């Protein structure tokens, strides 16, 4: 059956210049992500997982190569255009949640909606829906500091999905959580992938976490060394 | 784009709410701008009060005549004969008793200042009833006029405020002479309130002046018109006198003190530079402290303009709070504060600080200047925080 291509990396290289030294992280990397995928990216620390995710999210630029999204090139967009593209299409989930400590859960979830033309009432509705989806309706008024790590990450997930982006990019989303809480968060991602059609790319070094994905890519020394499909 | 506004509002509100995290640095910035604004206002209020004191004293309807080259009343000497010659000149207003002319003496006596307990100079002016009438707003606050031919004097309200021992009924000793205070007068807050007034003939007698005087004041027939008197002086070789309106005289006397305002602005500008350095440090720290939040918002799709505006707004809020505090302090401590300074004629001029609304505007402008400049460059850095910072490990 013909796959619906969402994201494509074509011959992407990335290197950093540190002093006089040139560090190459990837060389000539190809990757295709289809709509509806749930991909786990694994690899040793320092193998470039975060860098790859940042390039997918338009946060970091490749040194060479092309990045295509939904049939259009995005790596050569201007900073402003890239920011707008990101706001429309990408939801980020971070290892340390990155909630705004001065805002309560509902206000945190509302942040991406401030970039849209929605009215205050519409925003409120969307926020309620997103918080209900992650099971935190009763915590809307709580500050991040008053919530557990797992709850904070669920608020972060609600924030990532509230503006209904197609792609969720997660960098070690369970890296700071205990096993049980991690499983709850991963089940939630699985649900978003299966029931809500979100395409998900998740970086992790935890094999148990990778099991929730539909396929796992192993990154080492700038190459994908192994590709596993989960039935 | 309507959402840009809500982005900026949200980011600004977040910055303000996160201030407690940087409590001491933020307070330091508020305090620094408060001090700078307070210093500026203190100097300006002093200059303004002094100016008002000097300006209020000078009338266009009165001319003052002194010996040629005597820049101040203290240095002038005039003979009885010269007084008589001037009295006959055209251009002087008259009443039923003749020309309105006041030959005056001006000597220096010592008083003890209440505030410091130290000696300071006070002018003792000998004059007549016509001279007193020439001071437009002159009125007695308490007691009565001195009786000519006696050792009685009346005391300016400023002298009473600043110096010890000039209350009504008190006997005051200057050298061998003892004077009795019989009245307190006001001239509406101007420089004459810093003087002691007594009968001209008694001052002549006690200070061995014979029949000589120091200055002549005349009421002009036409305000500001010195021409007829000038003509008399030029025609008469015995009248080697300088003439100017009283307004010009005091304007000149006040001139050097007007540098106070300039000096104050220079001082507070230099201090503002110091405060600016501290404020810049505070704001750079704020940006570093918020870097992860800024980057996260950028990852969510917020523009860098909101990070810029939020930072400038934070700096403006802090500096404005300082400006408000400084203005309030200046108003509470300085407004109406009475003080005295060495006047142009080496005597104490008593005047009040005046913290007026236009000074507040200048203070506010300075505070906003500090806020804007100290916010601008850190805001530039905030706008350039790389988004990848959001993904760096460590909370
Ligand atoms: N801005 C940068 N400048 C220089 N080197 C960098 C930069 N960002 C990442 N690196 C290097 O790139 C490599 C990959 O980093 P990263 O993508 O964070 O790895 P991972 O997430 O797999 O641990 C590391 O060796 C890191 O030191
Ligand atoms: Mg990483």
Describe the structure.
The complex is a heterodimer of chains A (231) and B (395). Chain A is of the alpha/beta class and 231 residues long. Chain A has one domain (36-58, 77-229): Rossmann fold. Chain A is built from 7 helices and 10 strands. In chain A, the strands form 2 sheets. Chain A has a 6-stranded mixed β-sheet. Chain A is globular. Chain A starts with a strand and ends with a strand. Chain B is an alpha+beta fold. Chain B has 2 domains: 2-55 and 257-394, no CATH class; 69-239, no CATH class. Chain B is 50% helix and 20% strand. Chain B is built from 11 helices and 14 strands. Chain B has helices at residues 2-17, 23-57, 80-87, 129-134, 157-162, 200-206, 227-235, 246-289, 291-300, 304-334, 357-383, and strands at residues 62-67, 94-95, 98-99, 101-112, 119-127, 139-143, 152-156, 171-174, 177-186, 196-199, 215-219, 241-245, 338-342, 348-352. In chain B, the strands form 3 sheets. In chain B, strands 1, 4, 5, 6, 7, 8, 9, 10, 11 and 12 form a 10-stranded mixed β-sheet that branches. Chain B has a two-stranded antiparallel sheet with strand order 2-3. Chain B has a two-stranded antiparallel sheet with strand order 13-14. In chain B, helix 8 packs across helix 10. Chain B is elongated. Chain B starts with a helix and ends in a 12-residue tail after the last helix. The structure holds adenosine-5'-diphosphate and magnesium ion. Adenosine-5'-diphosphate binds at residues 16, 18, 23, 25, 43, 45-51 of chain A.
What proportion of the residues of chain A form beta strands (DSSP E)? 25-35%
Tally of separate helices of chain B: 11
Percentage of residues in DSSP E strands of chain B = 15-25%
The spatial strand order of the largest sheet of chain A comes to: 6-7-8-3-9-10
Helix content of chain A: 25-40%
Mean pLDDT figure of chain B: 87
Output the radius of gyration of chain A.
18 Å
Counted beta strands of chain A:
10
Number of strands of chain B: 14
What is the C-alpha radius of gyration of chain B, as a whole number of Å? 30 Å
Distance between the termini of chain B: 33 Å
């Amino acid at each position: 059956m013909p796959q619906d291509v969402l994201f494509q990396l074509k011959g992407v290289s990335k290197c950093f210049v540190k002093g006089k030294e040139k560090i190459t992280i990837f060389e000539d990397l190809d990757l295709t992500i289809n709509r509806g995928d749930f991909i786990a990216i694994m690899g040793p620390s320092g193998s470039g997982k975060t860098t790859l995710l940042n390039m997918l999210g338009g946060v970091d630029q490749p040194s060479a190569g092309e990045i295509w999204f939904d049939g259009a090139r995005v790596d050569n967009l201007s900073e402003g255009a890239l920011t707008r593209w990101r706001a429309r299409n990408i939801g980020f989930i971070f290892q340390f949640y990155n909630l705004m400590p001065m805002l309560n859960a509902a206000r945190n979830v509302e942040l991406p909606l401030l970039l849209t033309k929605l009215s205050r009432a519409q925003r409120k509705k969307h926020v309620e829906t997103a918080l209900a989806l992650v099971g935190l309706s009763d915590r809307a008024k709580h500050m991040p500091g008053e919530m557990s790590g797992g709850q904070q990450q669920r608020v972060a997930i609600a924030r990532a999905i509230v503006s209904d982006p197609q792609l969720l990019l997660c960098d070690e989303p369970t890296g700071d959580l205990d096993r049980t809480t991690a499983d709850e968060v991963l089940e939630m991602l699985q649900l978003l992938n299966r029931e809500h059609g979100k395409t998900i790319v998740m970086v992790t070094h935890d094999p148990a976490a990778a099991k929730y994905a539909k396929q796992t890519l192993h990154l080492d020394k700038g190459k994908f060394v192994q590709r596993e499909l989960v039935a | 784009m309507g959402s840009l506004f809500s982005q900026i509002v949200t980011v600004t509100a977040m910055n303000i709410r996160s201030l407690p995290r940087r409590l001491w640095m933020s307070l330091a910035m508020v305090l620094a701008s408060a001090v700078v604004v307070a210093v500026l206002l203190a100097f300006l209020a002093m200059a303004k009060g002094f100016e008002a004191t000097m300006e209020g004293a000078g009338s266009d309807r009165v001319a003052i005549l002194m010996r040629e080259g005597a820049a101040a009343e203290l240095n002038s000497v005039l003979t009885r004969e010269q007084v008589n010659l001037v009295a006959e000149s055209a251009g002087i207003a008259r009443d039923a008793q003749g020309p309105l002319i006041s030959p005056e003496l001006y000597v220096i006596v010592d008083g003890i200042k209440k505030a410091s307990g130290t000696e300071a100079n006070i002018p003792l002016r000998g004059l007549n009833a016509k001279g007193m009438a020439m001071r437009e707003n002159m009125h007695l606050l308490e007691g009565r006029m001195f009786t000519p031919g006696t050792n009685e004097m009346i005391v300016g309200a400023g002298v009473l405020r600043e110096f010890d021992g000039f209350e009504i009924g008190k006997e005051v000793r200057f050298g061998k002479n003892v004077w009795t205070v019989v009245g307190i007068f006001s001239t509406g807050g101007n420089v004459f309130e810093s003087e002691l007034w007594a009968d001209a003939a008694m001052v002549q007698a006690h200070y061995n002046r014979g029949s000589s005087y120091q200055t002549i004041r005349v009421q002009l027939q036409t305000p500001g018109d010195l021409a007829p008197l000038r003509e008399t002086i030029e025609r008469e070789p015995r009248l080697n006198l300088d003439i100017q309106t009283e307004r010009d005289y005091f304007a000149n006397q006040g001139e050097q003190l007007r540098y106070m305002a300039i000096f104050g602005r220079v001082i507070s500008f230099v201090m503002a530079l110091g405060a600016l350095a501290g404020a810049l440090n505070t704001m750079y720290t704020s940006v570093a402290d918020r870097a992860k939040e800024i980057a996260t918002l950028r990852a969510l799709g917020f523009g860098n303009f909101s990070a810029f505006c939020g930072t400038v707004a934070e700096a403006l809020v802090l500096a404005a709070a300082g400006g408000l505090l400084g203005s309030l302090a200046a108003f509470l401590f300085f407004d109406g504060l009475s003080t005295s300074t060495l006047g142009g004629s080496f005597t104490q001029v008593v005047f009040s600080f005046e913290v007026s609304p236009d000074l507040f505007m200048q203070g506010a402008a300075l505070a906003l200047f500090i806020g804007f400049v100290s916010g601008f460059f850190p805001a530039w850095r905030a706008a350039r925080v790389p988004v990848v910072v959001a993904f760096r490990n460590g909370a």
